[in-house]
Every structure is written in C-alpha cells, then in structure tokens.
Write a structure and sequence with these properties.
It is built from eleven helices and two strands; from the N terminus they run αββαααααααααα. By secondary structure, it is mainly alpha-helical. The protein has a two-stranded antiparallel ribbon. The N terminus is likely disordered.
C-alpha cells in the first residue's frame, strides 16, 4: 500500500498511529536514500488495525496543538512564515523600484501613502509583524533545541564537507537581519508612520543613502540576507514536504537565483545608485 511504500523509501517509520479506516495526514522526517539531508514529508493514506498488533490501543492521532508544539510543527511554522516574508520582500522591492522614476519621487511617495490608507494592506502589515515575531521565536527555540541535543560537536569535519557555514549558522545570520530590521524601521517606518516627522519619504531615502555608513551597513545587511535566503528558500520547501530528490537541485538553483539575482542585486542597487548620485537626481 501507499504508506508501506513511503515507509520503505525513508529510514524513519511513519507515526502517529491511527485507527483503521481513518485518513492519515502525518508529517514526518527521515533521511532519503542518496541524500544525507533530512527530508520532512507529508503522507496520506489509511492503515489497517493488524498493522499495529500489540501496540498500545490507547494511542491517538496527533492533534493540531500537539503538532504545532512539536519540533516538526515548529519547523513547519517557521518555513511557512519564512515564505510569507519572502513574498513581502518581492512586494517591497517592487515598491522601492519606484524610487528610480524621474518624477521627483512622486510615484514612490504616492505608493507609500496608499500603503498607509488601504485596510487590506494594514491587515497584511499586522500579519507581517506577527510573522516576523513567530519566525524569530521559532528559530530561537529550534536553535536551542538543536544545541541541547548535541552538547558535544561531533564529526565536525564530516559536517563541514557537506554543508556551508551559513547553512549551519542560520541563527547568526538571522540575528544580523533582525538587527538591520530594527535600524531600518527606526530610520524610515517610525518617522513616517508613527511620529509623522517625514512627509517626503523619497527624499528621506535619498538622504539616508547619501550617508556612507548607512549605505555600507545596508549593503552588508543585504549580503547577509542573501546568504540566509539562499539556504532558507530551499529549506522552507523541505520543511513543508514540498521537495524530493528529483526537484531538490531545481529548488537549490532557484534559491540562489532569488537570493542573489533578485534580492541582493535589487536591494543593493538603491544605496549604490543613491550614494553616487546616479539615482534621485530629480529630487
């Protein structure tokens, strides 16, 4: 049956247990043959009672609450919030590209103004801040859990041969990104949205990127973000069970293209072009 085939394909047996005839929707994690990385996956099917002969009859399926508080559930939530934040990056990049229009910053200012008066955007904004908090909290929990599970770092050389420094230290790159986010919000969001001290946001952006230290800080932060995304992009699909050995190389390449060609090149263009006076000449 389908479940047996999945169990044969992965080294780790599927759980939790369910009564006969009930739909199994389970999320598990195992090492795929030919691939050293753990590959979480979803499985669907039913299992007859005789499959669990001698098992505890009181075993029950994992509830939603149990799943969300499990390590796999936390990985799933972190992956989902990560993909949501990736969508925001795309939208944010689109809005920032309006800064390059030769209209004195009018298009960008109008876009920013509409974002503050659209009810749907305000709701998404709340969800965005919630996603950031949840993503950070889950990351801290999982990092601590992994650290506690391996108090002694073993087989360091073997690990280094199969993974990059950035993939092993997502917590560090994530911390740098969080620090950048706090500074970035303090520079633009709070003066424009909270204190009301900024009316021409396009001019505020130009002035910020005219500063050598802020332009450099922004470029370094975007570089760290690109390294974080190049691993996090493909890792999110793995955690959601949306990847396999066949499509893993495609996801890996897509992650690198998105992280470096779209995100890094796109966002780094702002401090570079504004600092050297190429952009923003009309305002």
């Amino acid at each position: 049956m389908f479940i047996d085939l999945l169990a044969q394909r992965y080294n780790k047996e599927i759980s939790p247990l369910i009564p006969e005839g009930k739909l199994l929707i389970t999320f598990s994690e195992g090492v795929q043959r030919g691939n050293s990385e753990k590959m979480p996956f979803y499985a669907f099917g039913t299992i007859p009672n005789d499959k669990f002969a001698g098992q505890n009859p009181n075993d029950q399926p994992m509830t939603l609450s149990q799943f969300l508080t499990s390590s796999l559930g936390k990985k799933t939530v972190m992956a989902a919030t990560g993909l949501f934040l990736i969508l925001f990056l795309c939208e944010h990049l689109y809005g920032n590209l309006l800064l390059f229009a030769s209209d004195g910053g009018a298009a960008f200012n109008e876009y920013s103004h509409s974002m503050t008066h659209n009810l749907l955007i305000r709701i998404v904004e709340v969800l965005l801040f919630a996603a950031i908090v949840i993503h950070v909290v889950q990351a801290i929990y999982l990092t601590k859990q992994n650290s506690d599970a391996r108090p002694v770092k073993y087989a360091v050389n073997k690990v280094n041969e199969t993974s990059s420094w950035f993939s092993r230290n997502m917590g560090i790159t994530g911390s740098v990104i969080f620090f950048f986010l706090v500074v970035h919000l303090r520079t633009f969001f709070f003066p424009y949205r909270v204190t009301g001290g900024v009316e021409n946001l396009a001019m505020s952006v130009k002035e910020a990127f005219s500063s050598g230290w802020y332009a450099s800080f922004y470029i370094v932060s975007m570089t760290v973000l690109a390294f974080h995304l190049s691993h996090g992009f493909q890792s999110s699909f793995h955690s959601l069970g949306l990847s396999n050995k066949k499509y893993a190389p495609l996801l890996r390449i897509s992650g690198y293209v998105f992280a470096w060609v779209i995100v890094w090149l796109g966002f780094v263009s702002f401090p570079v072009l504004f600092y050297f006076g190429i952009a923003g000449q009309s305002y």
